[in-house]
Structures are given as structure tokens and as C-alpha cells.
Design a protein that fits this description.
six-stranded parallel sheet; 16 strands; alpha/beta; 39% helix; 15 helices
Length: 438
Amino acid sequence: MRIGIIGLGYVGLTLAVAAASKDIDVYGVEINEHIKDCLRQNKAHFFEPGLDNLIKRTNNRTLHVVEEFPHDVKFDAFIITVGTPLKKIDGKKQEEPNFDYIKSALRGTVKDVYDGSQLIILRSTVSVGTTRKIVLPFLAELCQKPEDEILVAMCPERTLEGKAVYELSNLPQIISGNNKESVEIAQRLFRIMTPCVIEAKSLEEAELIKLYCNVYRDMTFAIGNAFCMAAQEFGVDGVKAIEHANYGYERSNIAKPGFVAGPCLEKDAYILINNMPECDSRDFILSARKFNESMEDMIVRWVREKVGEPSEGNVIALSGMAFKGQPETSDLRGSSSVYIAEKLKDAGYKMNLHDFVAKPEEMEALKLGTVYHDLEDACADAKALLVLNNNKKYSNVTDAPVFRSDRDGFEILDAWGACTELHYADDVKISTLGDMFN
């Protein structure tokens, strides 16, 4: 098969390389110079285990990176993988999804090579009804054909960053189509990549499945966070209470408390409720998302209580800027750590930033503080350290002085308990989410 992929970001590049490694002829359209420069060097512009090796194997063989699709090549399908972020007003995220990137991809990338005979696959996360009510009419108008002759599919992406290469070959792939031929082409494509393909009965069901997967995770994490905060009302360590409730008891699987964000979970609840204003479950779904977001403000409150109001000497070190630590990723998009840093900056605090995987130039571009490669250096002039993700590399900093002795009231918030294996000195002041306000 021969496919065209629009956008070589996190979703598009992993899909392109996974498909190319299965001998599918892949043309990926990308205009970002940094991304193209990285690919010319046979590497991705982000960290993903196993991805660079596959790029080396497929680049300029079955993987072709282009600025526009060639006119003399016959494609079986075009896949849209561009993002659907939340809208922003004055730099602040809103609660409404922004589908401009999808519309731009359709309008600007495929119009010169699309004639209605190729399948258009939407891989992006969208509100229910978007594929049928927005994408399908747009394509029909683009090639001047009736809607029932257009081939369109919704085949949502569900991979986990840090395991995307593995999961693209092993996860069941959800497919759907607006007619029999669309489903058949989608089946043929994804069966090359994975042994299990599940056919949704409609475009809308496929859209819902993706949203269900992420919003379910969002809501289960909200339960863990709510239980953790409730425990502290009684002077109980919320994390320990949850661990003990789960241990050896198969009917209890309460999520470990922590930050819930990233490029998907921060927005998919809003995308799900976007066009269901009268549904009784709307407030229930939204309340979970709002509670998870409130965790960021709780951290700012902890800083004020432990360090005091902003001043010249009140520098805060933030470590773990990527949105998650396990599986580790360099992705800063939608990271609670970034939002916490923004709130601390707005409050007037100065910050030192550190991460084991995120690229220094990307952290510097945030303009939120001084970026350090070494954790100890980041803490040198700080009054407090916030450990904000659960990267396993924290277990390797046992000998760091910051974890061994008190430094004139130096405070540590280990939000995920990532450093709990370390042997702290008795006088080190350390808090976790489980006892943050006890």
C-alpha cells in the first residue's frame, strides 16, 4: 500500500515509521524545519524508545519526508494526524477544542492530489460527529462529488508515549468508515501493522471510543486524587491509605494520586462534552477534570505555606517538567509541571527548571526560569524542590546532598513519591501528596 500522512509530530511520525517498517510506502508531509532537520539526521525530534532505530532502517526507503505530496504518485489513503488543542485566549487555555489544524490540513495539503478515490483517515481526537458533519462535507465539496461517494474513516490513535513503537504493532486498532469500501481499505491497511483490528459500527462510535479511553483514565485518577485529599482531613497519609486499600484486594484498584495532564488527558474531557450540552453526565465528567486541574493550585498553595511569599531569595527548583516520568518522555505539552511553573511565575517566584529527558532548548523556550542539566545545580540557590513526575532516574540521586541533610529550612515536595526509596536524613523536610497539608 501507499499512504500519505499529514503531520509528523508525536502521532504522525510514530505511525509513519511503524507503517514504513512493515513495507508500506509512506510519504509524510512536514514543513517544520527542525523536524525535517532531525529526520535528515535519522532521528526523531522527541524521545521515544526504539523510534530512532526504525527511522534509520526506513528513511529514504519506505519512508519519504516531503513538503507536499507528489502529483505523480497514486495513494491509497491519506491520514490526518494533526493535533486538536484547546483554544487559547491571551495565552490562557479555554474549554473549547480548536479544530483549525484539521481544517487547515484538509484545505492546504491534500487538495491538489485528492480526487475522491482515496480514503481519508482521521487519526486526530475530535468531538463526536466531526468526521461525518465536518470532514465528509468538506471533502465532497473539495472534489465536487456526492457525499455517499466519498471515502472517509475514523481510526483513532491510542498509543502510550514511551511505548508507542511497541503498541502500534500490538494494540488492537479501532477502525470505522462511512461505507463498505472505506472500511475495507482501513482494514487492509491496519492489518498489515497489527494482528487485531476492531471495526466500530459507525464513525461516531470510533470517535467515542478514543474519548472514552482517555476520559476514563482522567476520571479514575480524579478519584485517587479526591481520596488522597479526603484522607488528609483526618490526619491520614492519603497515598498510604490507598496503597493499603489496594494491597491483596482484587476489588480495589484505586489510582495512585498525582498530576493528570499531557497532550491528551488535559483536553479530551472538554472534547467529549463539547457538543452534548444537555447530557446529564456532562457535569460529572467535567467535575473530574476540574478536580485534577485543581491539583496545580494546591502545589502553589503549598509553596506559599512552606517558603513564604515571593522575594528575591525565594527561588523554587522544579524537577520533572515532562508531563510524565513512566514511561519516560520528553513531551512538555499539556504538562502540569509547566502549568505549575506558569502559576508560580505569575505569583512572582523565580524558578530553576530540571528534567532528565526533556530537551533543554524546549524548556528554555518556555521562558519560565533558568534551565539546569544537573539536579543538584538546580537546587543550589533554591528554598524548595518540587519533584513533579515519577521518572525512575530519581532513584539514582541517593548521594545528592539535597536529599541527605537539611539546608537551612530547605523543603522538598515529592509529588509522586518518586524518591521514596532514598534514605533521607532525619532533618530533611519532605512532603508527598499523601500528607501535603497534614
